[in-house]
Design brief:
Elements: E1 4-7, E2 10-13, E3 18-24, E4 33-39, E5 46-52, E6 57-59, E7 67-72, E8 77-82, E9 91-98, E10 102-104, E11 108-113
Parallel strand pairs: 2-11
Antiparallel strand pairs: 1-3, 3-8, 4-5, 4-9, 5-6, 7-8, 9-10, 9-11
Length: about 110
């Protein structure tokens, strides 16, 4: 079992940057995959980026070249660095851990103004 707590969301102007953090309640070293998802009002939750225990990353086409996912196993934390933010990036961002069961954080609001 693992608890996930996101932080770092907020309001930013278009073109700005934010860094989200996802702190886990236990070691993430052996967690198969951790990722960031987002859900905008009236839309389905979608994958933003993921990273495996081996460090392999995957990104949605809409964020490639702008967002970077990373993990610090010593701090049990996964990060999402978001640059060149656009209004369409506005959403609640959720951290997810995939083990035998899927775990979700409570979400962090990111709002990008034009």
């Amino acid at each position: 079992q693992v608890q996930l707590v996101e932080s770092g969301g907020g309001l930013v102007q278009a073109g700005g940057s934010l860094r989200l953090s996802c702190a886990a309640s236990r070691s993430i070293f052996s967690i198969n995959s951790m990722g960031w998802y987002r859900q905008a009002p009236g839309k389905q939750r979608e994958l933003v980026a993921s990273i495996t225990s081996g460090g392999t990353t995957n990104y949605a086409d809409s964020v490639k070249g702008r967002f970077t996912i990373s993990r610090d196993d010593a701090k049990n934390t996964v990060y999402l660095q978001m640059n060149s933010l656009r209004p369409e990036d506005t959403a609640v961002y959720y951290c997810r851990a995939r083990m035998n069961v899927i775990y979700w954080g409570q979400g962090a609001q990111v709002t990008v103004s034009s």
